[in-house]
Specification:
heterodimer; A: mainly alpha; Cytochrome Bc1 Complex, Chain D, domain 2; 2 domains; B: mainly beta; four-stranded antiparallel beta sheet; globular
Chain lengths: 121, 388
């Protein structure tokens, strides 16, 4: 660790190169994640329309709790994805695992935390 | 002379709406366009849309009641908006934001009070039907400091409104004989009532329960006898399916002496005798029912379903108790509405942006028109029905 940090300080060009390399990896990772669901348009519709029947089309809440970025600020992607897949016993939140894969639930959870996209109309 | 002047005034007032001829309102209605926040004004005789009214806010869960003259519609939006529409002039008369998160409303027996049922803040609010001035509110505080979402609001005779408390697990009856000083009675319902309805005669209020198998029943003619539970344990302890959409009870009514009810978490319509309230049969259907609506003559029950079966409609014949037709009116069927005497039923298909019209005898499609993500369909014949 110390060794590498010192190297960065000494060789700024390499630091910049490393920065861009990391950026590249992040971009690839994001692209890979976005590509991991082939049906993003359908998932957005599902969340807006079908989750929306309890949580509201604008996700401001209804019989279900609000799912806006602000409302979910304290929640992690993991717990959200688990709630989507397995439901919340004792509440009206059903388990969606028969309709959604783990990858799709993670995709939805990540996007809820960053502000869910609007449907393309 | 004065009469002529009057007519000129009327024509000038109505002039802007491209509806020059005098007309009645008995064959009018509105179709909610949920994403756009608009309604289409429709005519059930001509089977077509007449005009569109924009600017009604978030209509992702909207419901409509009508003034008894059939001219004015009150639209309750998800965002707490309450909008009064003039159907003859095709315009908004008045609009107020009355809550943060709302689910529907009802109109009093005498047509003078409009009441909204709200999730946030949990409770009901009463408005003057003429001016939309706030008259009174009843917060759904079922325990000190604890407020419940209100579901299943229905008008019942005697200037009263019945409703259920989702978290509170109770049925409340508020009497608005004095519109500014409502008096409320409370009755136990059961775990998580999700919707309610009043029978067409206004005698019984029923609240469907989500948290347990069964339905809470209150005889409004004898409230001193209290509420009781019917169809208890209809799931027989079996694990219910995940419920992807709450059923709506408003549509169901009594047909052929029996009540036809969507089962929660089951692909079934429950049938109960309307005198004894005992279960008499079950009809297996294609998915989890959302609406099970009786035709005005009670001969048919039309059923739509929750996601992922929401592209289907099934028609039950109430004489044989069997499904007689399965239809595919379009993707994401959200609502159905019968014409006043039931020769046609109008069906909205949200994801196909279409309203289809079916003949109830031939069960064939007889018309359709485009609508922008249509959901609820409401005809003015509701103005004359208890509980609508």
């Amino acid at each position: 660790m110390h060794e590498r940090r010192r190297t960065f300080n000494v060789r700024p060009m390499r630091t910049v190169a490393f920065f861009f390399m990391v950026l590249g990896f992040v971009a690839i990772a994001i692209a890979a994640e976005s590509n991991s669901v082939a049906n993003s348009t359908e998932l957005i519709r599902l969340v807006r329309q079908d989750c929306g029947s309890c949580h509201g089309m604008t996700l401001q809440g209804g019989l279900g709790t609000p799912l806006t970025r602000e409302a979910l600020a304290e929640r992690s992607a993991e717990t959200l994805a688990a709630t989507i897949l397995y439901g919340r016993p004792g509440t009206a939140m059903p388990a969606w695992k028969t309709l959604l894969s783990e990858v799709e639930a993670n995709w939805i959870a990540d996007r809820l935390l960053s502000g869910f996209p609007e449907e393309q109309r | 002379m004065m009469r002529w002047l009057g007519w000129i005034l009327v024509s000038l007032t109505l002039g802007g709406c491209a509806a020059p001829a005098l007309r009645g309102t008995g064959d009018l209605g509105v179709v909610i366009e949920r994403a756009r926040g608009s309604v289409q004004l429709v005519d059930t005789t001509q089977r077509m849309a007449l005009s569109r009214i924009d600017g009604l806010g978030d209509l992702s869960h909207a419901s409509v009641v009508f003034a008894r003259d059939g001219r004015y519609a009150y639209v309750f939006g998800r965002d707490g908006g309450l909008t009064k529409l003039d159907l003859l002039a095709s315009r908004i008369v008045k609009r107020v934001m009355q809550a943060g998160n709302s689910i529907g409303g009802a109109i009093s027996q005498d047509g003078r009070i409009v009441v909204a049922q709200n999730y946030t803040p949990g409770g009901i609010k009463a408005f003057d039907a003429e001016t939309l001035e706030l008259l009174a509110e009843v917060p759904a505080e079922y325990a000190p400091g604890k407020f419940s979402k209100v579901v299943g609001l229905a008008d019942v005779p005697g200037q009263r409104f019945a409703y259920a408390l989702f978290e509170g697990g109770e049925i409340w009856i508020s009497d608005f004989s004095n519109p500014r000083k409502p008096v409320t009675q409370r009755f136990p319902a059961g775990l998580q009532p999700y919707d309610g309805l009043v029978t067409p005669d206004g005698r019984h209020y029923l609240a469907g329960l989500f948290g347990e198998d069964g339905i809470a029943l209150l005889d409004l003619w004898q409230t001193e006898k209290g509420s009781r539970k019917i169809l208890a344990n209809y799931g027989r302890g079996e694990e219910k399916l995940p419920v992807f959409k709450m059923p709506h009870l408003r549509g169901w009514a009594l047909a052929a002496g029996r009540a036809w009810l969507p089962a929660i978490g089951r692909h079934e319509v429950l049938v109960a005798d309307a005198l004894s309230w005992q279960e008499t049969a079950r009809v297996a259907v294609k998915g989890q029912p959302v609406f099970a609506m009786a035709s005005p003559d009670g001969r048919q029950i039309w059923v739509n379903f929750a996601h992922p079966d929401n592209g289907w409609i099934q028609v039950i014949d109430t004489l044989s108790g069997k499904v007689v037709k399965t239809l595919q009116p379009g993707r994401a069927v959200l609502h159905m509405e019968f014409t006043p005497r039931g020769e046609n039923v109008w069906i909205s298909a949200r994801d196909d942006n279409r309203v289809s019209i079916y003949d109830t005898r031939s069960l064939e499609k007889v018309g359709e028109f485009a609508a922008d993500a249509p959901s609820g369909i409401f005809f003015t014949s509701r103005a004359n029905r208890i509980g609508f």
